[in-house]
């Protein structure tokens, strides 16, 4: 935020918050409620890159949100201050005492910390909620503990959402997220093959290679372009009928002809139509695309009914 609120007293929660899913949203609502009651700034301390990327050098993990998307979602759910700490091995080696004193108290001026019963922190994640309660007495802040019962009531997790997306189950993923899964990227020039078969596409380039791209296939999507909601269908895959090429994301927008090359757009994924297939020839592909479009438009019509 542009307003400098660094030294104001805050209510703070801490976590990776990948996906900002319905479980996270429950924590954020409690954070906001406490903030309103105590007239504090609702704040989140989050980390990037993901600790597994740093500590285990795990390049395989894909995240549900880019760090920019995570910021936008947290703001959307009412968080006024988002502190993103760069996660490094040096940061991971901070003692529990220094982590609490230097960051939670001195830097963020937290007066209430809202945290799960199973939260671990400090070097080797050796400190737990009992240690945090001890530090709270030393440094004069309160702990609002999220109980095992509260956490168990929400059976969703970022891992479950990743699994659903990797299986192409966009409906399940969206139900866990509480919003439509999004892909944010720049529209770049492709091979213009779509125009030759009457299905021009916007090619979406996503710079962040850690962003999870759902299973290859054809999906119904929507985007807001120049404040207007535009629906379309999106193909994720290598377009095997035309020629095998690197995996791409291409969107055919309905009733839309504006040149949007170079534009940054956000695609919301609504519904999966089918797997990607290799067809016998271009004509067979065109016929299938026409069928896909009818199904997609019927889905949109029901959505808007």
UniProtKB/TrEMBL annotation:
Key words of the record: ATP-binding, FAD, Flavoprotein, FMN, Kinase, Multifunctional enzyme, Nucleotide-binding, Nucleotidyltransferase, Transferase
Superkingdom as given in the UniProt entry: Bacteria
Catalyzed reaction equations: riboflavin + ATP = FMN + ADP + H(+); FMN + ATP + H(+) = FAD + diphosphate
Domain Riboflavin kinase: 176-301
Top EC class, one word: transferase
Enzyme Commission identifier(s): 2.7.1.26, 2.7.7.2
Pathway, per record: Cofactor biosynthesis; FMN biosynthesis; FMN from riboflavin (ATP route): step 1/1; Cofactor biosynthesis; FAD biosynthesis; FAD from FMN: step 1/1
InterPro entries xrefs: FAD_synthase, Riboflavin_kinase, Riboflavin_kinase_bac, Riboflavin_kinase_bac/euk, Riboflavin_kinase_dom_sf, Rossmann-like_a/b/a_fold
SUPFAM superfamilies for this protein: Nucleotidylyl transferase (SSF52374), Riboflavin kinase-like (SSF82114)
MF terms (GO), sorted A to Z: FMN adenylyltransferase activity; riboflavin kinase activity
Homology family: Belongs to the ribF family.
Protein's job: Catalyzes the phosphorylation of riboflavin to FMN followed by the adenylation of FMN to FAD.
Protein name as it appears in the record: Riboflavin biosynthesis protein
């Amino acid at each position: 935020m542009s307003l400098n609120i660094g030294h104001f007293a805050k209510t703070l929660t801490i976590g990776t918050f990948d996906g900002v899913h319905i479980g996270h949203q429950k924590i954020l609502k409690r954070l906001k409620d406490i903030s309103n009651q105590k007239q504090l700034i609702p704040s989140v301390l989050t980390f990037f890159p993901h600790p597994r990327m740093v500590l285990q050098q795990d390049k395989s993990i894909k995240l549900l949100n880019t760090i920019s998307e995570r910021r936008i979602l947290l703001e959307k759910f009412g968080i006024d201050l988002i502190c993103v700490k760069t996660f490094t091995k040096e940061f991971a080696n901070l003692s529990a005492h220094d982590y609490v004193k230097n960051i939670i108290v001195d830097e963020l001026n937290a007066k209430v910390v809202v945290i799960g019963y199973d939260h671990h922190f400090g070097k080797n994640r050796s400190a737990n909620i009992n240690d945090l309660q001890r530090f709270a007495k030393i440094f004069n802040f309160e702990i609002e503990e999220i109980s095992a019962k509260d956490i168990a009531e929400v059976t969703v997790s970022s891992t479950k959402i990743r699994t659903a997306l990797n299986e192409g189950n966009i409906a399940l993923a969206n139900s866990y997220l509480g919003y439509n899964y999004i892909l944010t990227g720049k529209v770049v020039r492709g091979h213009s093959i779509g125009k030759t078969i009457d299905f021009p596409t916007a090619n979406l380039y996503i710079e962040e290679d850690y962003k999870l791209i759902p299973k290859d296939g054809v999906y119904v999507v929507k985007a807001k372009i120049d404040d207007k909601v535009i629906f379309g269908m999106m193909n994720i895959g290598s377009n095997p009928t035309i020629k095998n090429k690197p995996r791409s994301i291409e969107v055919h927008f309905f009733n839309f002809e504006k040149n949007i090359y170079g534009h940054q757009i956000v695609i919301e994924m609504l519904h999966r139509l089918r797997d990607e297939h290799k067809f016998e020839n271009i004509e067979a592909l065109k016929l299938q695309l026409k069928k896909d479009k009818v199904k997609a438009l019927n889905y949109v019509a029901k959505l808007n009914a």
